[in-house]
Amino acid sequence: MLFWHFIIYGIAIVFVIFIFFFCVVLRIIRRYYHFPIPAVLTRVIDNPWRRRFIQKPRVVADRLKLEPGMIVVEIGPGKGNYTKAFAERVLPNGKVYAVDISESIIEYLKKRVEEEEIPNIIPKIDNAHNFSFADESVDRVIAIACLPEIPEPVRVLKEIRRILKPDGLLSLSELAPDPDYPRRKTVKQWTNEAGFILQSEYGNWFVYQINFCKS
Ligand SMILES: C[S@@+](CC[C@H](N)C(=O)[O-])C[C@H]1O[C@@H](n2cnc3c(N)ncnc32)[C@H](O)[C@@H]1O
User: Fold this and answer.
1) In terms of CATH, what superfamily is 36-213?
2) Is 113 touching ligand 1 by the criterion CB < 6 Å?
3) Domain boundaries defined on the chain
4) Please, which pLDDT band fits residue 30 given cuts at 50, 70 and 90?
5) What is the dihedral of CA 151, 212, 134, 117, to 10 degrees?
6) Ligand 1 centroid – CA 37 distance (Å)
7) Which of 17, 66, 74, 212 lies 20 to 30 Å (CA to CA) from residue 158?
8) Secondary structure string (H, E, C) spanning 110-135
9) Which pTM was predicted?
10) Is the pLDDT of residue 25 over 80?
């Protein structure tokens, strides 16, 4: 009996230390040092629990008003579970460019796309400060738990504005356990500075999604 108490308390203590490290220590470190989150951590963030109870890929996709044929760019696609939900909705003829600065993220996604034979996800190394996409060539740009990780977010937003079509939509989602989590007020301030207009918003303080249009 004592043995099981020891095990249960042990697990609870490790869990609390992990949460404390993730939500407090990492947040303080990242306030002063900006570096891309290691690929392995993005795999921890994208877990079945989150996808089932906190941020369902289908719900995120529903709010984007995706249509067949659309061109979508997802910045920082992680394991690609959200990317898949977007890709299904733009078929036929639509494409989702899953872009990331990290080679290992893109290599992982390339393998997954090949194994699962997903025809319209294109993993691509690209830098959000200087996209390779032409002006006004994209219908949707999506960034989930990603924008605040990238230095100079307003510069990134201006670059997104450049590649979005005049009737295009930008969708930003954030969730509180992310060490880079910004408040909605901060995100609205950034987007306002970059010339975006609020279109719709969903969620609560813990997890939210805000859509913006160009004009
Ligand atoms: C926290 S992860 C994304 C998590 C994922 N969207 C999810 O919800 O599970 C942020 C990603 O942004 C990428 N990133 C950082 N700086 C970037 C840049 N300048 N251009 C493109 N991607 C960048 C990182 O490599 C990382 O994979």
Assistant:
1) Vaccinia Virus protein VP39 (3.40.50.150)
2) no
3) 1-33, 36-213
4) confident
5) 90
6) 7
7) 66
8) HHHHHHCCCCCEEEEECCCCCCCCCC
9) 0.89
10) no
Q: How far is the CA of 77 from the centre of ligand 1 (A)?
A: 7
Task: Decide whether any atom of ligand 1 lies within 6 Å of the 183 Cβ.
Answer: no
Extract the tokens encoding 133. 């996409």
Interval 166-198: pLDDT, tens? 999 999 999 988 888 999 999 999 999 999 999
| H/E element, 54 | none
DSSP state of 194: T
Q: What is the DSSP code (8-state) at residue 57?
A: H
Most informative mutation of 26, 55, 60, 149 for ligand 1 (most atoms within 8 A of CB): 149
Given the structure tokens 């390779």, which residue do they identify?
132
